[in-house]
C-alpha cells in the first residue's frame, strides 16, 4: 500500500483498515520505539525476523526528535539485509481504534514512512505484519552520515518527544534487554560514550538512567499471550 492515494492520510488509513479487515488478525512489527513505547495494548507479542530489510538511523526528524533548525534522526526500516524485532497482535475488539492512534503517531500529515505488510518469521510461524519502511528516494532519507555529524546531532537535536540521543539509547537498551544484538546500534552507543554523551556504565544519557524509563507504564501492559500457550515467548517481556 506504499505510495498509494497520493499520500492522503485519510485515504491511506481507509485502505489499511480494509486490508486489515480482510486479513483478520492485525499484527504490527516493531523495530525501534514501537518496542519500548508501543502506544497500544497487545494481545500477544513474539520475537520476529524480517528478511530483506534492515534497521538504520537514517531518517531525518524535524518534529519528534529534532526541529527544522536542528533536525534529529530516527530509525527507519530500509531495503536490504535483515532485522530482528518484535511483532504485536492487536486486540480484535480494539484494533480499529488502535490503528487510528498508531496511524496518527507514525503517519502525521500523510507521513514519511511507506507502510506495508511484510512477512515476519516468528517461533510459531510467519505472520504478515504492518511495518513502517522508508524509501531511499525519500527527501527525509539522510544516507550514511559521517560520525562527526552524527555526534553533533546526538549533542544538540531535540524535538517534542525528547532528544535523538535519548531515542537511540532507549532503543539500544530495549533491544539489549530482549537479547537482540544490533552491531550498528552498539557501535553508535560506543561512539556516544567515547564522546562523553552517555554514562559508560549504563549506556544512558545522564538524565535517563533507566531503559525506557518514560514509557514503562505503557510498555508493561503488553502480555506475551492471551490466546494460546504456544504463543508465549522465551524472551523478557517486550515493550
TrEMBL record:
SUPFAM superfamilies: Gamma-glutamyl cyclotransferase-like
EC number: 4.3.2.7
Signal peptide (residue range): none
Bias (Low complexity): 218-239
Enzyme class, spelled out: lyase
Region feature (Disordered): 203-239
Protein keywords: Lyase
Protein name (record): glutathione-specific gamma-glutamylcyclotransferase
Amino acid at each position: 500500500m506504499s505510495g498509494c492515494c497520493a499520500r492522503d492520510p485519510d485515504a491511506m488509513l481507509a485502505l489499511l483498515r480494509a486490508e486489515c479487515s480482510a486479513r483478520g488478525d492485525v499484527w504490527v512489527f516493531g523495530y525501534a520505539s514501537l518496542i519500548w513505547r508501543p502506544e497500544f495494548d497487545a494481545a500477544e507479542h513474539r520475537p520476529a525476523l524480517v528478511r530483506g530489510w534492515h534497521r538504520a538511523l537514517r531518517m531525518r526528524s524535524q518534529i519528534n526528535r529534532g526541529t527544522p533548525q536542528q533536525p534529529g534522526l530516527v530509525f527507519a526500516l530500509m531495503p536490504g539485509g535483515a532485522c530482528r524485532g518484535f511483532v504485536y497482535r492487536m486486540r480484535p475488539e480494539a484494533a480499529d481504534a488502535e490503528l487510528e492512534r498508531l496511524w496518527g503517531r507514525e503517519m502525521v500529515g500523510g507521513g514519511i514512512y511507506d507502510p506495508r505488510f511484510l512477512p515476519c518469521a516468528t517461533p510459531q510461524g510467519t505472520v504478515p505484519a504492518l511495518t513502517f519502511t522508508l524509501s531511499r528516494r525519500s527527501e527525509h532519507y539522510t544516507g550514511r552520515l559521517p560520525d562527526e555529524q552524527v555526534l553533533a546531532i546526538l549533542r544538540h537535536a531535540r524535538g517534542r518527544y525528547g532528544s535523538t540521543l535519548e531515542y537511540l539509547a532507549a532503543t539500544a537498551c530495549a533491544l539489549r534487554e530482549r537479547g537482540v544484538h544490533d552491531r550498528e546500534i552498539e557501535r553508535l552507543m560506543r561512539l556516544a560514550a567515547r564522546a562523553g554523551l552517555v554514562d559508560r556504565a549504563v549506556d544512558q544519557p545522564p538524565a535517563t538512567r533507566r531503559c525506557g524509563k518514560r514509557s514503562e507504564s505503557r510498555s508493561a501492559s503488553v502480555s506475551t499471550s492471551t490466546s494460546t500457550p504456544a504463543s508465549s515467548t522465551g524472551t523478557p517481556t517486550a515493550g
